[in-house]
Amino acid sequence: MTRGKNKMGFIILTVIILLIAWSAISLIPVTGRFSLDLLDGETANVRMLLITDLHSCKYGRNQSRLIEMVKKEAPDIIMFGGDIFDDRLPDDNAQTVVRQLSKLCPCYYVTGNHEYRSGQMHAYVHAHMRADHIKSFLRDEGVRVLEGDCETLLLKGCAIDICGVDDPAGTGDAAWKDSLAGAYAQTDREHLRVLLTHRPERVSAYEQYDFDLILAGHAHAGQIRIPFFNRGLLAPNQGFFAKYVSGIYTLSNGSVMAVSRGLARESTPFPRFFNHPEIVVLDIH
User: How remote is the C-alpha of 198 from its chain's centroid?
Assistant: First the structure.
C-alpha cells in the first residue's frame, strides 16, 4: 500500500515538474514568419512586422531581447496592433520598445481594449484620458496613430493604404463600424489595402470590405493553444476552442488575416502552454 502511494506521489510530482518546465519553455519568444503573395508586378518584397499585446511586459534589460529580435528582421514597416500598454503594469517597458523601434522604420499603431482601462497603476478619471495619454506619447515618438483613418505609404515601388481603427472598448460598436467603413472609404483599389485592428473575431465585419490584408492580435492564442488544431482553449470574445488565434486565415471574401499570439507574459494570471509569445514577420511580394 505504501509502495503504491509512493509511486502515485512520484507520478504526480513528475507531472507537476513537467508542467512547470513546459510553461517556462512556452515563455520564450519566437518569430512567426509568413510569405504572402499580395503584390502585382515586379515590386520588391515588403517586410512588415506585427507586434501585439505586449502589455508592457519585460524582455531583458531595457527590453534588449525584444528589440534585438526586431532589428534582426530589418522590417520596412512595424505595426503595433494594440495592447502594447497595460492597465496594471507600469508603462516603462512599453515606452522603451516604442522609443527604440520607432527609430528603425515607419511605425503604425491602433489601440487595444487594455489601453482604455485606467487600472491600479494609472489614476485617470476616464478611460479615454488613458488612451489619449498613450496616443500623445506615441505621436511624440513619431508613430502614426490610426483612429478610423487611412494613410498611403509609398515603399519600394508599392503604394500601401494603411488603415486602422480604435478598439471598440473605447468607441462602442456602432462608432467602431462607422470608423471601419470610413477608413475603407479612403482606400484606392489600385493600392495594397491593409487594415490594422486589435480584434480578430470580428470577421463578419471585415468580410464586408475588400482589404487585402488584415492584422490583429487580442486572442493571446487562447493562452493554452491546442496543438495540431491551431485552436485556443479560451480567447476573449471568442470563448472556448477559439478559431482566430494564431497565424494566417483566408476570409470568405478573399481577404487574408494575420493574427499574432502576442507578447504578454507576466501581465496574465494564467501561464501559456504550447503558445510561445511572438513577433510576426510578413514578407509581402
Answer: 7
Q: How many Cα atoms are found within 13 Å in the side-chain-facing hemisphere of 250?
A: 4
168: cell is: 471598440
pLDDT digit string, tens, across residues 156-197: 989 999 999 999 999 999 999 999 999 999 999 999 999 999
Residue 118: burial class (beta carbons within 10 Å; 0-12, 13-18, 19+): middle
pTM for the structure as a whole: 0.89
Q: Taking Cα atoms as reference points, which of 46, 25, 52 lies closest to residue 34?
A: 46
The class (CATH top level) of 2-284 is alpha beta
**Cell for 55?**
502589455
Between 6 and 100, the more confident residue is 100
Burial 255-276 (b: 16+ CB within 10 A, else e): bbbbbbbbbbbebeeebbbbbb
Give the DSSP letter of residue 224.
B
Asked whether 215 and 81 are in contact (CB, 8 A), the reply is yes
N- to C-terminal Cα distance for the chain?
A: 66
**Residue ranges per structural domain of the chain:** 2-284
The three three-digit cell numbers of residue 92, written as one number:
516603462
